[in-house]
Design goal:
Blueprint lengths: L1 H28 L7 E7 L5 H14 L5 E7 L4 H14 L3 E5 L3 H13 L4 E4 L10 E5 L1 H15 L4 E6 L6 H14 L5 E7 L5 H14 L5 E4 L2 H13 L7 E6 L7 H6 L5 E4 L4 H12 L7 E4 L3 E2 L4 H125 L6 H32 L7 E4 H11 L1 H6 L3 E6 L5 E4 L1 H18 L5 E9 L4 E8 L6 H4 L20 H11 L3 E7 L3 E9 L38 E2 L7 E5 L3 H11 L4 E5 L2 H11 L3 E5 L7 H10 L8 E5 L4 H9 L4 E4 L4 H25 L12 H15 L8 H8 L3 H12 L3 H16 L7 H7 L5 H12 L3 H11 L1
Parallel strand pairs: 1-2, 1-3, 3-4, 4-5, 5-11, 6-7, 6-8, 8-9, 9-10, 14-16, 21-22, 21-23, 23-24, 24-25
Antiparallel strand pairs: 10-12, 13-15, 16-17, 17-19, 18-19, 20-22
Pfam family, one: Peripla_BP_4
GO molecular function: DNA-binding transcription factor activity; phosphorelay sensor kinase activity; sequence-specific DNA binding
Protein name: histidine kinase
């Protein structure tokens, strides 16, 4: 009996293997059905060959994605119609929108609305004014204009008259192509952009407007048209005016076909055309990567090239070959589909037969195996029950031990936090009393006491945050939600950041999808969350950056999303896995913080039954998204409105909320005790104010709170000494020193570096960067003051050295260092204009490419003299050489050196050398 059952099982197994193999073969050939997508394409027009080529490329690429439903709407050059069609797409329901805008400004708002609804948007060919889109596909029209400009200059031998036929006014391709073309031609002095003709991108507009312009400018040598249709129209006009043999024409598009730009170049109608790919295939490929959540680039710039007689035949053969290959592919796809249909019908019959046989075989096998498994399972259950009892006892012991240890840690944590609060309270109490109700204090003592109070409050703030962390950890921070308008709530928090953002030139944008979003939420909990996210964004966003806060209700998912997006440096790969860890400050972070902000924000968001996530791209910025539920449990709702906590909670040590701590705009503090100007670059407001307090009585003073602002002020004001901190946001102090020493406007300025890093190798690094002095914190204010005075004294000695280097026999200086090169360039400009009696300081500054004030400060800093005196010295030095030539009269020497009259020349010469020009000539003639 046992032998029969064994033989039966073997036969069943073999039968299953055979049928399973057949099914596997069939199943392998049928891949899982991909999800279906609907893509809407809003085209500005489909009435020209270039747009039709774009649509053909899309359809060619879509042939590889049968699961995509593609819808196109033609706006026919009507911006209002295009906006209406995009709204129709939204009502019909699409998964992704592709837009080729008719005009930039009118289409931007509706595109932003689509993007804010969570629908990906791919911008094709023509850009919009906003950055709220998913990806851009198209050529670089400014680069097209630049390439055209360089080609035209080469074609004309860098000399000639050019006429430009522009596209429709207000469209981004016309604006960008003209900008690139005009800027490039400006670099060729021999080429003149004689005239321009506007069009609507179509040939009839050129036929109507160009003849009058050509009659007014018969000297035109070449016409640059913004597309090949306009270029063909220009050729017809030239043919009509019998100018086609002389005027050469260059177009843009380079389409294949009988009427395309490639054929026009081959027929010698156009001299050249610039390839401007329609980008249809790339738009569909980018859209599919977005829909399938695959990696993609936000900016997809298509390349361009010049097509002329040297390569037109190759380009034509390549395009014809591609067309032939595409036709072959389409034919093969039709044959493949026929084979799939035949195979599917045969496969259905096979599946039915195989399923019936396998079902019978499996039923018999399962009955036999169930009998054997039943006995084995009973034996295993007994063993597992014993193991489970043993493991349960061990887990209970571990849990009791962990509970005891956790309670001990939390008690220590709580007691330690309270111990910190006690001395802080004892510090703040007397200080507040002395500042408010105590006797009148000197200004210096009041400043020091204010400094003590602010830093004690900061310590108290950190202790409060630690207490919040403890409450979250033990689950003793309840949520008391009340119903309110989330949009107004976030708007009030953003108002706190308006002033510090404006001071740094940062744009704050608020984009709620709806004006009112009612929601149950705890204002104290979410106030800390959003305040921390905005504070973090402001801390890491550079000057003239942008912070965008968006609010969107998603009823399908039952939540509300609040996103905070910045344009900062982003989060590095090594920091992303740890960004929400307590006390983590980042591997490369130069910001000074406690490392608790994001961790606390995450804990509070989860406490509110929400989620906090982020995305970041290094060098482009980060986006933090808070997702809150639309419905909260009844236990978390409260009818009593809570009191909103003060926003001083913010975990931003660089963002202070009082005027005494807030980083002010850079300002110049005047002082009558010295004309020397000192620039202080320090990001800590208290240290900055402390340095200003110590230096202000002795010098003129300018302050900056970051490296970029410091560099700008240094170039504008040309200070005599710069005091700079090493640890600065965005641009470090070492980078500031390197840029100062590499710029001839500021290369002469002594720099004192301040830092808390006192390792010898770090000090060597600072000196190697070009610093004149390296002071470690804490430093002696008196030593700093004397160091500034010593550097100023050494600078005066260096000025004397440069003045001696300007010898009486020559007015040039060897350009060995940056300052010497500046003097050499300045001397060369003055010598080249010696004959001009009207040569002014403004003329010299313009030739140097700087302002009059910058030139004066630089010359004063290097030579200790004014620019006018320097020019006069060069003229008088040159006069001594010319007076040795007996063939020149004294009057001729005077006029040759730019003096207004011989008498003024004689007076100036005698004042400089104590002898008149005639006496000087007589002395040297006698000596000869």
């Amino acid at each position: 009996m046992r032998l029969l059952s064994t033989a039966y099982s073997v036969l069943l197994v073999r039968a299953i293997w055979v049928l399973g193999g057949l099914l596997a073969v069939g199943s392998c050939s049928r891949s899982p059905e991909p999800p279906t997508y609907t893509i809407g394409f809003s085209q500005c027009t489909n009435g020209d060959a270039w747009r039709q080529a774009m649509l053909a490329g899309m359809k060619k690429e879509l042939s590889f994605y049968p699961e995509v439903k593609f819808q196109i709407k033609d706006a026919k050059y009507n911006s209002a119609l295009q906006e209406q069609q995009i709204k129709e797409f939204l009502r019909e329901g699409i998964d992704l929108l592709i837009v080729s805008a008719n005009e930039t400004e009118p289409i931007t708002p509706i595109v932003e609305e689509v993007y804010n609804r969570g629908i990906p948007v791919v911008i094709l060919d023509r850009r919009i004014t906003s950055k709220l889109y998913t990806a851009y596909v198209g050529g670089n029209n400014e680069e097209v204009g630049q390439i055209a400009g360089n080609y035209v200059a080469s074609l004309l031998g860098r000399r000639g008259q050019v006429l430009e036929v522009l596209g429709a006014p207000g469209t981004s391709p016309a604006v960008d192509r003209h900008r690139g073309f005009a800027q490039t031609l400006a670099t060729y002095p021999g080429i003149q952009l004689t005239a321009q003709v506007n069009s609507n991108w179509e040939r009839p507009s050129v036929l109507e407007r160009l003849p009058a312009v050509l009659r007014a400018h018969p000297e035109v040598d070449l016409i640059f048209a913004h597309n090949d249709r306009l270029a063909l129209g220009a050729y017809q006009v030239c043919k009509q005016l019998q100018l086609d043999q002389r005027i050469r024409i260059v177009g843009v598009d380079g389409l294949p076909g009988a009427h395309g730009g490639i054929q026009l170049v081959q027929d010698d109608i156009l001299k050249a055309t610039l390839l401007y790919s329609p980008g249809g295939e790339e738009a569909i490929r980018t859209a599919m990567r977005v829909l399938r959540q695959q990696p993609y680039d936000k900016e997809n710039i298509l390349g361009t090239m010049v097509i002329d007689s040297t390569n037109v035949l190759t380009m034509k053969l390549q395009t014809e070959k591609l067309t032939s290959q595409q036709q072959d592919i389409q034919r093969q796809q039709r044959l493949l589909q026929q084979q799939r249909d035949t195979y599917a019908s045969q496969q259905t019959v096979l599946y039915v037969l195989a399923a019936a046989l396998v079902g019978s075989a499996l039923l018999g096998l399962l009955v036999w195996r169930a009998f054997r498994a039943n006995r084995r399972i009973n034996q295993q259950l007994g063993q597992q029950n014993e193991e489970i009892r043993s493991q349960r006892n061990q887990l209970q012991e571990f849990a009791e031990r962990a509970k005891v240890e956790t309670e001990a840690k939390l008690r220590f944590f709580t007691n330690f936090s309270h111990e910190l609060r006690t001395p802080l309270t004892l510090i703040l109490g007397p200080v507040e009393e002395m500042l408010t109700s105590g006797p009148e204090l000197p200004a210096a003592q009041r400043h020091d006491l204010s400094l003590v109070r602010r830093n004690a409050q900061r310590l108290l703030q950190l202790v409060n945050q630690l207490m919040d962390f403890r409450k979250i950890d033990v689950g003793k921070m309840p949520v008391r939600a009340t119903e309110g308008n989330l949009v107004a709530f976030v708007r009030e928090i953003m108002d706190v950041f308006e002033k510090p953002a404006r001071q740094r030139g940062i744009t704050l944008r608020f984009l709620p999808a709806e004006p009112v979003i009612p929601l149950w939420f705890d204002v104290n909990v979410l106030d800390k969350v959003f305040f921390n996210l905005l504070s973090n964004a402001l801390k890491f966003t550079p000057e003239r950056g942008q912070i965008t806060v968006s609010i969107q209700r998603v009823p399908a998912e039952g939540n509300v999303r609040v996103s905070v997006e910045d344009t900062g440096r982003g989060i590095s790969e090594q920091d992303r896995a740890h960004i929400f860890e307590w006390f983590y400050q980042g591997q490369q972070s130069t910001a000074k913080g406690s490392g608790m902000g994001l961790a606390l924000a995450l804990g509070l968001t989860r406490l509110h039954l929400g989620q906090l996530s982020f995305t970041s791209r290094p060098g482009q910025g980060s986006t933090f998204v808070v997702t809150l539920p639309l419905v909260l449990p009844a236990a978390m709702k409260s009818v009593v409105a809570p009191t909103l906590a003060t926003p001083i909670f913010a975990l931003d040590e660089g963002l202070a909320m009082s005027s005494a701590v807030a980083a002010p705009l850079p300002q110049v503090v005047s002082s009558a005790s010295s004309e020397a100007l000192v620039l202080v670059i320090e990001d800590n407001p208290d240290v900055n104010a402390f340095l200003a307090q110590k230096l202000q009585p002795h010098f003129q003073l300018t302050t900056a709170f970051d490296g970029a602002t410091g560099l700008r002020l240094a170039a504008e004001t040309i200070p005599d000494v710069i005091v700079c901190d090493v640890m600065l946001p965005e641009l470090s102090g070492l980078e500031v020193v390197a840029q100062l020493k590499g710029d001839w406007r500021t290369s002469h300025i002594p720099v004192i570096l301040l830092t808390a890093r006192n390792a010898p190798e770090q000090q060597v690094e600072g000196v190697q960067a070009g610093a004149d002095l390296y002071l470690t914190k804490p430093f002696n204010p008196a030593f700093l003051l004397e160091s500034v005075r010593t550097l100023l004294s050494n600078r005066e000695k260096q000025r004397e050295h440069f003045r001696r280097e300007l010898s009486v026999d020559t007015a040039t200086v060897a350009p060995q260092r940056v300052d010497q090169k500046f003097l050499a360039d300045l001397t060369a400009i003055v010598e080249a204009n010696l004959t001009r009696s009207d040569l002014s300081v403004e003329d010299v500054a313009r030739s140097m490419g700087i302002s009059r004030v910058q030139l004066y400060r630089k010359v004063k800093a290097v030579l200790g003299t004014g620019v006018t005196d320097f020019i006069q010295g060069i003229r008088l030095t040159k006069a001594r050489q010319l007076l040795l030539d007996d063939d020149l009269t004294i009057a001729e020497v005077a006029y040759q050196l730019g003096f207004s009259s011989p008498s003024y020349f004689s007076t100036s010469f005698k004042a400089r050398y104590q002898v008149s020009p005639s006496e000087f000539r007589a002395m040297h003639t006698t000596a000869g």
